[in-house]
């Protein structure tokens, strides 16, 4: 088992550091770490350092020692962004959680025409905050040091602009009347950006497909079964990570 990960604003380098606040409380009162155990401190932006627990003080102070060097994890050669249509209820957080654990690099909420859920005003702000908090916690849980970015929700027109700038633009689409290529055999770039659109439960509308096609995106399918929107992105990311060599 790899060492547990804790988030700091800036990764320290030096003989000793005190982890306090919510992260310190989690380390001391929840994880119950003891002297001699290894930990990883990260800023979630690719910088990290390994250390050893020196002492636990009170309920929320963990003294970490032997933080001798800060390492930076390089950006992936193939960066994977999933444009996720808004699912119902808490299935949005489920999608963010599992895609983060799998290894997605960025998540873009999308207000598709067939989405039942609407992000407006305070509700939209709270929902976005939940997605970002979920990505942070899932990043820690899965021992990542570079957490996925969760962008502001985009309209269809804005998603089309994002697709137009990608090295490979893809739309997951399960429709017998629309020719599509298997994701498992798609030709992927050696480097650059892959942007994948995952539609809502009702599917991507013909009008949206046309807008995305004009932006250079082509339809792809995962397999014979049709997955829910909250799980399709995770399955697709797994396929892409395996095929780009990031899981090798």
Automatic annotation (TrEMBL):
Broad class of the protein's primary localization: cytoplasm
Boundaries of every Ribosomal RNA small subunit methyltransferase E methyltransferase domain copy: 75-240
Known EC number: 2.1.1.193
Keywords noted in UniProt: Cytoplasm, Methyltransferase, rRNA processing, S-adenosyl-L-methionine, Transferase
UniProt-annotated location(s): Cytoplasm
Domain Ribosomal RNA small subunit methyltransferase E PUA-like: 19-63
One BP annotation, GO: methylation
Keyword field contains Disulfide bond: no
Gene Ontology terms, MF aspect: methyltransferase activity
Cytoplasm keyword on record: yes
Family: Belongs to the RNA methyltransferase RsmE family.
Function of the molecule: Specifically methylates the N3 position of the uracil ring of uridine 1498 (m3U1498) in 16S rRNA. Acts on the fully assembled 30S ribosomal subunit.
This protein's name: Ribosomal RNA small subunit methyltransferase E
Species for this entry: Streptomyces virginiae
